[in-house]
Each structure stands twice: as structure tokens, then as C-alpha cells.
Design goal:
CATH superfamily of one domain: Cupredoxins -  blue copper proteins
Structural class: mainly beta
Distance between the termini: 54 Å
Order of helices and strands: HEEHEEHEEEEEHEHEEEHEEEEEEEEEEE
CATH architecture of one domain: Sandwich
CATH topology of one domain: Immunoglobulin-like
Amino acid sequence: MKIKKRYSIPLLMASLLFGFAATSGAVVDIQCPCDINNDGDCLDIRSTGPQSQRYNEPALAATQQVECMSLTGGDGFATMADGTPQYIFSFSNVTGVPQNEVMTRGMLAATLPAPAIVVDQGKKFYLSLTNVGMVIRPDLFDPHTVHFHGFPQSSTVFDGLPESGVAINMGSTLTYFYDLVEPGTYMYHCHVEATEHMQMGMLGNLYVRSLQSYEGYGGNPATIGKLGGNQSTGAPMGYAYNDGDGSTAYDKEFPLQLGGIDPDFHNGSWNVQPLPFAQMWDRYPLINGRGYPDTVNPGALTAPAENGNIASQVESSLITATAGQKVLLRLSNLNITVTHTLMSPSIPMEVVGIDAKQLRSTSGENLYYTTNSVTMGGGMSADVILDTAGVPPGNYYLYAANLQYLANYDEDAPTGGMMTKIVIQ
């Protein structure tokens, strides 16, 4: 017989905060070298007042070639496409939140997937993670980390493996440092009790935009990427890699992370029951934390009541483009039990990169290939380009080749799981 435990959210917050206050050495300390006013970001501008109080953080960030982001690790809820709530662990974006508010703002704010990390090659990236604890399960004192999956030559202390690096306890913060030297599609996840924490939802999209997207190639100003979608010059938005020939140019980009949820595992965590590691079976296949038809909803999904009405699924999976544009799909699979094959039967996919490596021979020959399906095991990524030249306007589909993954929980369910739309206008 299962015993379901319910908790008073205000009481839990009070007990958690009391516990943090009593923990020696626990402190929120977000570090960012271009943050002058100590709010954890470099977005603020002050141009009035006494000269001694003036600052321009964006200009300082540009001078130092720095990017900063702040996350919290905690718990929350997400809603499956059939309306079933699922208890999750994950991260929340608190960039720009004053440090004295990070703990309360991060509670019950876990998102599925975790907030996307989008950074630029050539920058110095500072990522701060604060562990805010588990509101629904105050008996859990799990530390958390960020593992930048696939990061080349990572520093041991910042790699996220608790056995060799630093794990972050409740009420504390660690700032990771990365020197972004290689572009491509990566991913990130918590590496503490990795099987459990990844199954519970502590994983997200991460990609590095190429330097060529800002500097162009061949010295021709007409080929310089216009990040932000500015098409007034006819130049592409960017380039997946520093290709030198424009062959990885794209006009729009969409990160799509494949995953899944085992409801028995999540319910076991929610109801304080033993976790079925050996029987783990993801019966909710997801793209960016959603199953069809939620995947084609362009906005945030309705916030779960169990979450204190905090929105937890804000990243859409809908792909939109104007006919003639090239669309870069940044695909990743962080499912810990399943190898997924994603199909695009109507619009061929040109694969230009695998695991954040451009497909190019040592002699400089492009090894791209065109296909209608891409297979990825857990921890793999692929950069694929959809060329919509000559594609009539309309709705096209991207979906799992394994038909059992086209359902939400039950294979007789009326709605599909791992499927989304490509809308050509």
C-alpha cells in the first residue's frame, strides 16, 4: 500500500530557510566579473548620477568577452500531455535576481527541460548554481552539480562529477568557469546520483554559437552572420560551425532535446516510496519536456497547481520558418534508457555535425550527408539543417521512428508523444 505524503508549502519554506540559516558556511554567492551592482548579471546600465556611480555593465562584458548566467537546483512539477502532473527535480534561471532573493525565487521553480544555455564561442562563461533544496521532499539533502556534457578539456573541479570535483550542498553556490573554444550542440545535466537526477529532469539544452557567425568568412562583408534574425541584408543568421565556405549557414535555429519520464519513478519520489531503478521504463516520450500536442504550443504551458502555479514548461518544440530559409535543428538525446531515432519524412535533413564536431575530413572535405532520420543514443547530439527552398507552405512533421513512442503513457492514448510540427509559411 502506498502512503502519499502531502506538505504545507509555506511550512516547508520556513523549515528549509531555517535549516539553511543553521547550516555553517551555506551562502548564496554569485560571481560574475562584469557584474558591478552585485545582482548576478551584466545587463544593467546607469548613465546618470555622480560620475563615481556610473557604470555600463554590457560594455564591460563586451570588453572582457564575458557571459554570465545563474541557475538554481531544486524541485517542482510538470504536466504531461494527458494532464497528469509529474514531480520533478531540475534547474531554474535566476539570472539577474538579487542574491538575497535567489533562495525563495528558486523554490518550486524547476523547469522541464532545464533552462537553455546559449553562449558564444570566444567568450568566458561564468555559470553560478545555487542549491535551494527540495520543497516537496525536505527529507532529501541531495547536492547538485552542472555537467557540461562534451565540453573539451574541462577542468576537473568544474566538470560536475562529484567524485573528482565539487558538489553543491543546500543553501550554497558554486560558480563554474568555461573558456568557450569550440562551437556546436552540447547538453548539460546534474551528475550527482546521475541516474536518479537525470530521470527526474535535471537536464537541458546547451549550445555554443560559432565565431564565424559574428566575423563572417573569407573577409566578404556580405557573408557576415546577422545574429538576431536580421534578414534585411540577405545574410544568414549564423553558421553552425566555422566552416570557411558558408556550408553550415542557417536562418533560424531550434534546440530540440529528446527525453522521457517513467511515471512510476517520479511517483515513487513524490510519494516517498522505493525507486524502481531496475524497472525504469519511460512511458512519456518528450521533446523539450513536452509530448504532442503540447509540443506545438508556441508558448509556456499552464502552470501546475501542485507547483504553486509557477510555470515549469516554457520551452516550445514548434519549428517555424519562411519558405526558402535554412533551419538548424540542434538535436540532443539525454534519455538514460532509450536510443531515439527522429524522422523528417517530408523535408530531408542535412547532418553537418555530430557531438559538437563538424563532419569534415582531415584533408578539409565536407562529410555532410542527407537523410530522413537521425539516430542518437543517450548523450549524443547532432546538428542538422533543413533547407526549405522549394518546400510548399504547410505543416510538416518531425517524430519518433519507433511508433511506441508516439503516445503519452498508454499506446492507446489519443495523443502522440515524441512528435512536433514544422510550419512553413
